[in-house]
Design goal:
This protein is mainly alpha-helical. Among the domains are: 9-99, Four Helix Bundle (Hemerythrin (Met), subunit A) (Up-down Bundle); 102-151, Arc Repressor Mutant, subunit A. It has 13 helices and no strands. It has helices spanning 9-20, 24-33, 35-42, 52-69, 78-96, 104-124, 130-137, 141-151, 170-174, 181-195, 199-210, 215-222, 226-242. α1 (9-20) crosses α2 (24-33) and α3 crosses α4 (52-69). The protein starts with 8 loop residues before the first helix and ends with a helix.
Length: 245
């Protein structure tokens, strides 16, 4: 079988149903015809300290999970669902293997900043701005922003069950002008997810990931604190994450 020949949606759904019923031949056919998708995703992680063969195996594991967990009643193509599963398996390994690290000094600054946040809220009844936190702990505003960002659970729309690699954001998935299958799937899924958001939520995501604005700039534009934007952003990304599970 030629791995580069895509299966039609109807045939894919039939094979998934057979595979989930225990038909190994159906599963094997699905794997073979989606290997090109796995390879296209694996290429994005080459050069990050993991051997290609290991990346390939991790990608295949993600594909198998996608086949096992896909709900045929979903109104999306299988490849749309499989992309985050494949990429996430790799990112989870990178996280668990300790490849994504935060310096001790940044962790210590984050602890001080969060302590200042709590104290300010208790004393004033509202959340502090980044500038107020920075002044309280005698630190640079940019350093405080970085520290608080590092302390929060960053989530990507491509993370059904895995942690986010801070170097990979939504924008990385849509910036590629390539007409590869994975690129088109990424853009289609992103468009569908954005359409499910409320106007305010969509505005935050567009400003952050499409207009390349910082959380402070978004907060100023919307008349709230940077901390509120940070929390809202993570809640929105969590909502988007759940919708691709």
């Amino acid at each position: 079988m030629n791995e580069y020949v895509p299966l039609g949606q109807e045939e894919t759904l039939k094979l998934i149903e057979l595979s989930q019923s225990g038909n190994e031949n159906a599963k094997e056919k699905l794997i073979v015809h989606n290997i090109a998708l796995v390879k296209s995703i694996v290429k994005k992680y080459v050069g990050k300290g993991i051997e290609y063969d290991d990346l390939y195996q991790l990608g295949c594991m993600g594909l198998v999970k996608a086949i096992s967990n896909f709900d045929v009643s979903f109104n999306v193509r299988f490849s749309t669902y499989a992309v985050p599963m494949i990429a996430g398996e790799i990112k989870r390994f990178m996280r668990d293997d300790g490849m994504i690290k935060v310096s001790r000094s940044l962790k210590e600054l984050a602890i001080k900043a969060m302590s200042s946040q709590e104290k300010f809220l208790a004393q004033n009844g509202h959340e502090a701005t980044i500038s107020e936190i920075a002044k309280d702990i005698d630190a640079d505003v940019e350093d405080v922003m970085m520290a608080l960002e590092s302390a929060m659970p960053h989530m990507s729309i491509y993370e059904p069950v895995y942690e986010s690699d801070s170097e990979i954001a939504i924008v990385d998935k849509i910036a590629d002008d390539s007409m590869s299958e994975s690129g088109m799937v990424d853009r289609i899924m992103l468009k569908e997810l954005l359409a499910t958001l409320e106007a305010k939520e969509r505005q935050i995501i567009v400003m952050r990931y499409f207009q390349d604005k910082t959380q402070t700039e978004v907060a100023k534009a919307m008349g709230v604190s940077q901390v509120q934007i940070s929390r809202l952003e993570n809640k929105i990304l969590e909502k988007m994450r759940k919708r691709v599970m």
